[in-house]
Amino acid sequence: MTLEFLVASAIGVLVAGGIYMVLRGRTFQVVLGLTLFSYAVNLFLFASGRLTVNAPPILSETATAYTDPLPQALVLTAIVITFGMTAFAVVLALRSFLETGSDQVDGDDAPSTPAHAASGETTPGPRA
């Protein structure tokens, strides 16, 4: 089993998990799915620069081999951007929950409790 096969398998598992989570109906699961998907993209970018073990990321006269530093720089930038976007999405989801009382991404109301369902009432959400 080669290193490339393991990295490709990890990318596939992350993409599959990300898509599964994005297709859920709740905002927190969607945010987690987008995060998994971004990890898969970061791993893909990192692997696109060839997987080299124990090689320095700089050229020198003493080094016989080197690793391309551009994918590493791209992944570092992508991690920072992903963190910022995830924090923004979490704040938007929290604000949406506080405004509507539901964390459903399709706009449905929050599921009612059995006592409220028997009386026909819906569960009121918190209002800001």
From TrEMBL:
<feature type="transmembrane region" description="Helical">
    <location>
        <begin position="30"/>
        <end position="53"/>
    </location>
</feature>
<comment type="similarity">
    <text>Belongs to the CPA3 antiporters (TC 2.A.63) subunit C family.</text>
</comment>
<dbReference type="Pfam" id="PF00420">
    <property type="entry name" value="Oxidored_q2"/>
</dbReference>
<keyword id="KW-1133">Transmembrane helix</keyword>
<feature type="region of interest" description="Disordered">
    <location>
        <begin position="104"/>
        <end position="128"/>
    </location>
</feature>
<feature type="transmembrane region" description="Helical">
    <location>
        <begin position="6"/>
        <end position="23"/>
    </location>
</feature>
<dbReference type="InterPro" id="IPR039428">
    <property type="entry name" value="NUOK/Mnh_C1-like"/>
</dbReference>
<keyword id="KW-0812">Transmembrane</keyword>
<keyword id="KW-1003">Cell membrane</keyword>
<feature type="transmembrane region" description="Helical">
    <location>
        <begin position="73"/>
        <end position="94"/>
    </location>
</feature>
<dbReference type="InterPro" id="IPR050601">
    <property type="entry name" value="CPA3_antiporter_subunitC"/>
</dbReference>
<protein>
    <submittedName>
        <fullName>Na+/H+ antiporter subunit C</fullName>
    </submittedName>
</protein>
<keyword id="KW-0472">Membrane</keyword>
